[in-house]
Amino acid sequence: MIGLGNRIPSSQNPVTASIIQTTAGLQAWYQFNTGVSYSGSNVTAWSDSSGNDNNLTQTTATNQGTKTSPLGGVHLDGTDNFMALDTAIDLTTFTVFAAITLDDNSLETLFGNGSDNTDMFRINGSAWLLRTNTASFQGSLATAKGVSSYVVTLFSDVGASSTKYTLRTTGEGEEDDVSIDNQTFTIGDIGRLSSGAQFFDGKVLEVAIYNTELSQATMEAIETDIVNRTGI
User: Fold this and answer.
1) Over the stretch 73-87, which tens digit does the pLDDT of each residue have?
2) Beta bridge partners of 83
3) 231 Ramachandran zone, left/alpha/beta (phi>0; psi -120 to 50)
4) Model pLDDT for residues 2-17, shown as the tens digit of each residue
5) Which of 85, 93, 92, 139 is nearest to 115 (CA)?
6) Which of 8, 36, 163, 224 is the most exposed place for a label (fewest CB within 10 A)?
7) Percent of the chain, pLDDT > 70?
């Protein structure tokens, strides 16, 4: 018999608060299996769980990704699928987490700025490319992950004239960094270079965006939380 103190949690309404929601600086959170809207098998919107109401949407049917298996994120086809934030987020000091499954790793853009190709975070083979303004402000972050599933974490350490960006990936303790002259990094699209090219081919299962550099202990706790929730 189930008593009042033993509620069975719904996957859409988790009873226990995530460390993501309780960590200061959260700007947007697209949580696995929460707030995802569908039209048939297509994903039309993904509500922001941060409380900031900065939702992901895609109203054009041909640009809509599809349901993931397991259900809870968006599967982008690498051809013309992407989702746009209601309001692009400008970042200087930041920490960004994304749970992904890559179907291909050739010019796959995870984040664009929503208007052009001056900002992007894109994988191509054995490296992620981060561009924070134009080609004059970019650098590569090595990865040995290949086509696989993992949580990618990108964070910045802002100095007087340059910023050190560090990439972490779960599973292998992998980490690499690059320094680029100080610029603002803008996220406005998920799944494409915002000039309309280099679309992401794979699943996006969860994304969390902070406007602060988190401690290593907090990053590790959030990565574990995402892994446990998404099962990647």
Assistant:
1) 999 999 999 999 999
2) 190
3) left
4) 333 332 233 344 435 7
5) 85
6) 8
7) 92
